[in-house]
Design a protein that fits this description.
The protein has about 190 residues and is an alpha/beta fold. It has six helices and five strands; from the N terminus they run ααβαβαααβββ. The protein has helices at about 5-45, 60-75, 85-95, 100-105, 105-115, 125-135, and strands at about 80, 95-100, 140, 165-175, 180-185. The longest helix is centred in the first third of the chain and has 40 residues, at about 5-45. The N and C termini lie far apart (about 100 Å).
């Protein structure tokens, strides 16, 4: 004697089977993701020399710590100029920041180009002049990094030496992925 299932019962059993399969796959995906996170945590503890295998800056706890120290060092009512990483800087310091090109008005760029030529429109002199025009006193430089291509040379390790004519370096933080220099504009 065989019992035949109706069409609705087959559909219901098929639906329940597919649901259970979907739940099983979901648990499998969650397990794989969780185990990868645990593996990365263990690699970070056991193989500190292998940080270059992981994307730079992603696991840089020293960077966050440096930004928190910078937050304590700088006044929060000042807008600062940052060479790179503006969103990260603003998030961890709660200090308003501008990248150099944000603070340049079109008029100041045109006037600077007329006076000094196009090659000097993004020089240390133009940066100082622009910071003074806007009332900015602090410059944060991620050594070797510039969001504005024209400032790449100035923010390189060699270019930073030229900044001492116009700025006092008040702090320097060395992280896994960056050297962060804090400068204050000389009067």
């Amino acid at each position: 004697m065989t019992i035949e299932l109706g069409t609705n019962e087959r559909k219901i059993r098929s639906f329940i089977g597919w649901c259970l399969l979907g739940i099983a796959i979901g648990f499998l995906v969650i397990t794989v993701i969780n185990s990868q996170n645990q593996l990365l945590d263990q690699l970070m503890q056991r193989l500190p020399g292998s940080l270059n295998l992981l994307p730079t800056g992603v696991f840089d706890d020293k960077h966050v710590s440096a930004l928190k120290q910078i937050s304590e060092l700088l006044p929060h009512n000042e807008t600062v100029v940052v060479s790179d990483n503006r969103p990260v800087f603003e998030y961890f310091t709660n200090i308003e920041a501008r990248i150099p090109s944000d603070s340049y008005s079109e008029e100041s760029l045109v006037s600077n180009m007329r006076e000094n030529g196009p090659s000097d429109s993004y020089s240390e002199e133009s940066l100082v002049s622009n910071m003074r025009e806007n009332g900015y006193k602090y410059l944060i430089v991620y050594e070797g990094n510039s969001q504005v291509h024209e400032f790449s040379e100035l923010f390189s390790s060699d270019g930073l030496k030229r900044l001492s004519l116009y700025y006092n370096e008040i702090a320097n933080y060395i992280t896994v992925s960056n050297d962060i220099h804090i400068y204050q504009l000389k009067n």
